[in-house]
Amino acid sequence: MSDRGQLRVRDTTFDWGSRTYLMAIVNVTPDSFSGDGVEDAQLAVASAVAQWERGADIIDVGGESTRPGHALLDVEEELARVVPVIRGVRSALPGVPISIDTYKPAVAKAAFAAGADIINCVWGAPDDMLAVAVECAMPFVAMHNQHGTHYDADVMDDVLTTLRDAVQRARSCGVRMILDPGIGFGKTADQNIAVLASLRRLTQLGVPTLLGTSRKSTLGRLTGREPAERVFGTAATPALAIAAGIDIVRVHDVAETRDVIAVSDAIERGWRPPAWTA
């Protein structure tokens, strides 16, 4: 099972395995668990531009919080939040890859029309979302998720079974897939840690992968810190993920994570800065 190689999105060529790419979170919502959400479109666009200047490779725009107990949004409200931001980011950063964090087909289609390039879905790869990816020729991030935290067997076994199915269905319709094990979604803190300890099993599937651990509650339980203070706790996870072969990390704190990536990629992937001399 291998979908490695390269993926071209706007001005970026994702050369999987050569270095780690950084997806920056832009929350257009007042109820983000991390406290960084903004509803004002101009402020959200400014945040996206700042994240790009700090070293982001992808701007991920989301309009509905996925925190436990979050309020569900109807399509119209989600569109009102994300479409102006995507248009603004596309205008300010014409060549930058933009992903839309949604599980609603209508939002994904409207986001594409506004300038988004990639679908980032927290509910795996539903057929109606894959249909949008086919229609719009969009790469697709499929995240493992489930209702509740009960697993009949090892949690990573279930994660891999679900994601393998997503890959097979995506291949059947020609969609380029990226896999996310879903840290913090449908899992207890101990299950999250078990998944993080088994990331090599995910990367061995031979498909590009993404990890989103930024400021998550499991890190809070381990460190005793509030979301905005979890920068160092978060930083441990990209470093270990890169050692396991993860391709993209999704974070709030871009500048700090860029440094983590630089050192980790130098050790694990032989990467060097452009001005490096022996």
Characterise this structure.
With 278 residues, the protein is of the alpha/beta class. It has one domain (6-269): TIM Barrel, CATH 3.20.20. It has helices spanning 41-54, 75-92, 105-114, 127-136, 155-172, 189-196, 199-203, 217-223, 231-244, 254-269; strands at 6-9, 12-15, 21-27, 58-62, 98-101, 118-121, 140-143, 177-180, 210-211, 248-251. The strands form 2 sheets. It has an 8-stranded parallel β-sheet. Strands 1-2 form a two-stranded antiparallel sheet. The chain is globular. The mean pLDDT is 94.
Topology:
Layout: E1 6-9, E2 12-15, E3 21-27, H1 41-54, E4 58-62, H2 75-92, E5 98-101, H3 105-114, E6 118-121, H4 127-136, E7 140-143, H5 155-172, E8 177-180, H6 189-196, H7 199-203, E9 210-211, H8 217-223, H9 231-244, E10 248-251, H10 254-269
Parallel strand pairs: 3-4, 3-10, 4-5, 5-6, 6-7, 7-8, 9-10
Antiparallel strand pairs: 1-2
